[in-house]
Amino acid sequence: MQSVKILHCADLHIGASESFLGAGALERRFETLLTFERIISTAKDNGVNILLIAGDLFDSNDIEPVFVDRVIEGFCSIPEIKIVYSAGNHDPLNALSPFSDRKLPENLYILKTKDSVIELSELKTRVYGKSFGEMYVKGEPFFSLTPPDDDFINIMNIHGELRSDLNSEYNSITSEFISKSNMDYIALGHIHRRTEIGKIGNTYCAYCGCPEGQGFDELDEKGVYLGEISKGKCNLKFIKLCYRMHISETINISEYKIATEISQYIISVLKDKYGEDYGKNLYKIILTGEIDDNVQILTSEILSRLSSELYFVKLTDNTEIKIDMQSLTNEKTLRGIFAKKMCEKIESAKTSEEKDELKYALSIGLKAFKGEVNLSEDK
Fold it and tell me: Is 219 within 8 Å of 213 (Cβ atoms)?
């Protein structure tokens, strides 16, 4: 059976900045190019016929020429692969597009801002779709171009928001739109979280997600879909390609008392879980557990020790102090009076949510008496 090998990627956001990295933000921007280069190499090494980029290749149209140069160089390095791009809401296809004033490689096909099709006769494949022309685009109830009844493979490459209605400014794509498209596969972009390969009607579809996370709302492994599409069949698998991962990890430190022990334990947990490259990732570490009243958690010292091993780490102390509350509330001290008042409030709380908030406030307050709370302390 006739098949075509594809690599489906989207939402590279080349040039995106993670400002919380401070001095490292510029270096991180260029790492988006490294992920792009991994995609190019993966397509070449796996004999891909078509590289589908479903929008937001660049983080914006106002991007430095060096990023555009490197992308075009990457496309030129794989002349045997057809590259089909549909511009997204971050880099719409208009006069400001980074591609508008460039000589583009012959293997790059950019879908127009209206329903379009690119016929790749030698691959017996047609690629349908459309680009964003502006930042906001309304969706349509159905695609206006219908594939002919022949043996060509029909793929759609499109950026948009899969939803049940057309009330979105980011190109609403409904289930009905997909089921009536008569496509063999729809490569979706815009949603940064990968979905499993689904099937609506006779059409397979999926979001591959972004290949490189850009914050702690985009956690864990990121990559692309790679594999073969044929008439009525879809055989794609997820390939991890991200240069770094954003990871949120909750670690119980009840058994440890000093910063050196705590930091060594955290590193051992991360190394066991994420392997030898654990140090490359960006971590949000949440400390939990019960600690003795005489143990002082110095987050600044722990951060200093972790930073020598990890590319980036944010630390949140959610530990609770192990205290004999009866003895504490009987103390004739400011701390004892505070604890007594808080215990009374917790006892009279009307909801579990209110009780949890008050318990957290008690924990923060007791830590403050020990000088462990920063002005920016939060959950």
Answer: yes
Please report how many Cα atoms fall inside a 13 Å half-sphere around the Cα of residue 296, on the Cβ side: 9
Alpha-carbon dihedral 102, 107, 111, 112, rounded to 10 degrees: 50
CB atoms within 10 A of CB 322: 13
Q: What is the pLDDT of residues 244-297, one digit of tens each?
A: 999 999 999 988 888 899 999 999 999 999 999 999 999 999 999 988 766 777
**Phi and psi of 213, rounded to 5°?**
-65, 150
Residue 71 exposed, middle or buried by CB count within 10 Å (0-12, 13-18, 19+): buried
Cα→Cα distances 172→12, 210, 256, 273, Å: 21, 19, 51, 39
Query: Is 130 within 8 Å of 88 (Cβ atoms)?
Result: no
Cα separation, 240 vs 212, whole angstroms: 10
